[in-house]
Amino acid sequence: MEAVKVAVVTGSNKGIGFAIVRGLCKQFQGHVYLTARDEGRGKEAVAELEKEGLHPKFHQLDIEDTKSVDKLKQFLKEKYGGIDILVNNAGFAFKAAATEPFSEQAQVTVGINYWGTLNVCNALFPLLRSHARVVNVSSFVSLMTLNKCSADLQKQLRACKTVDEVSAFMKKFVEATKKDEHKAQGWPESAYGASKIGVTLMSVIQQHDIDQDKSRSDIIINAVCPGYVDTDMSSHKGTKTIDQGADTPLYAALLGAGEKEPRGKFISDRQVKDI
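Predicted structure:
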């Protein structure tokens, strides 16, 4: 077992995740794992960073595939015995011109962005070492969408105290779209926004849960908005470069051992925003 610190970034063969790996390779004293669903693309990304004199490692990871997630967990446990930084960056959004039925868009988007992220958290949180940092990449769209929900639904969502409660709302949303009842139930027409509401609320609760165990209270978890970034997901309409988008996730991932805040917050441009 190697006595070295280790960082893992999900969905990092391109875009913001790629830039986060680049930044960690430059600033983090330890092994940095670039992960991707497609092994070929992942290794190509590693090779690209190696041309810059950086040395990330690669591990295949499909966050929707529990076997793939478990394989990563077992690898990290056996090789390192723990993990120091986890950046849950992997995500998905349909294009505005997508022709798939909204119910399909909701199921796929929530499946990847919420359930996939939760899969990784459930698997890797037991491996978090002292002073570990977790960054769940969310979006300003999560707050915009939350504020567009009906007043009653907003109140219910903000009142969630457990991850199970958040998960129940994610299930309700997807089921409602299948019956075309989501608007009647107070949800706006944004599958991506709804999925990221889940990620943001989940992050706050995860911190609260971790804090209940005094032996783990030095672990910090935050939801982070990279901003509007020039990536495939934004159809390259974003105003930030991928490295600018990686700035706030890196800030949260690299909070020093003596830092206690921000924790269990939503962070955008290194500033805490009210949920």
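Summary: The CA atoms of residues 24 and 249 lie 10 Å apart.
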